[in-house]
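Q: Could you predict the 3D structure of ATP-binding cassette domain-containing protein?
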Amino acid sequence: MSDGLQVDDVVHTFGDRVALDGVTCQVPSGRLTGLLGPNGAGKTTLMRILLGVLTADGGEVWLDGRRLEDVHDRHAWGYMPQERGLYPAMTAGAQLVHFGRLHGLSRQQATLRARDLLGELELADRWDERTDRLSGGMQQRLQLATALVHGPHVVVLDEPFAGLDPVAVEQLSSMLRRRVEDGCLVVFSSHQLDLVQDLCEDIVMVDHGRTVLSGSVSGLRAASGQRRLRLSLASSERGWLESFPGVQVVSDLADDLRLTVPPEVDALQLLDAARSCGPVLDFGLELPTLSELFLAAASGERRHEAVR
Ligand SMILES: Nc1ncnc2c1ncn2[C@@H]1O[C@H](COP(=O)(O)OP(=O)(O)OP(=O)(O)O)[C@@H](O)[C@H]1O
Ligand SMILES: [Mg+2]
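A: Sure. Here are the predicted structure tokens for ATP-binding cassette domain-containing protein:
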């Protein structure tokens, strides 16, 4: 089994409500993984089970080939829960030192790490500020720092980007990338699909407590069978399209033609056919965005696909 987390057929119910209905997925180390899914899909429940905060009714979670038993197996992990939990009257610095100490760091180590992290998050000048006097986004960054202060190798973050301004999004993205490049396993949930598309190597998408898509972002986009060819044509002649019955016209405005390209059709043959009828001024093959894959998967059009 490869390095990383393996989730096998995890089931969890709250009373009559099935929150997780057999989730299976992999979260590799050294790659950034985004956990996606509509509201109520089961992301937070899954993360709490990964952490051992909740016990699954069925299924197993493995790390680096070793089955995880209880919360003690995860004591060194970093976790940012969706419901934030900071002490409002404590200063930012004291708060971080406190969380570092809870994870077994000495006061000196915790203070050093806390100073580094507040610097990295551009909150160094807020060391002595009471937490409840920080802005919402600053509290969010401080919360993130509490998850990272002990230098964890496994980091699970529930909606860390929610409510952050674009500069803070950029900072947090770089922070997570640095952790991943150092070999950490980082998984975070988000509804910001453009961000996940740009930032993550891998995704896991859940809906109604089941995995509907998982694997590499590039592989899933390429394998989706929803490619489009964009052509800018000098001629309005479209007779050549008749040789490609599976191809559909998405739009045909002025000289700009957009076509769907089913998996069995070679896009270059389409291009050649268009060129045989007149000059092609511009062209491009477009893969579906993560948003489009998400909408297709969430509307139940797709079964679980795992692509690497
Ligand atoms: N403590 C609980 N008691 C009862 N039902 C719960 C509890 N926590 C979650 N659920 C239910 O489990 C399902 C999954 O919820 P969960 O919080 O995991 O979704 P989510 O994907 O994190 O959604 P969101 O994007 O809104 O954060 C929902 O139907 C929710 O109502
Ligand atoms: Mg949630």
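Q: Anything worth pointing out?
A: The chain has two domains: 4-221, 227-286.
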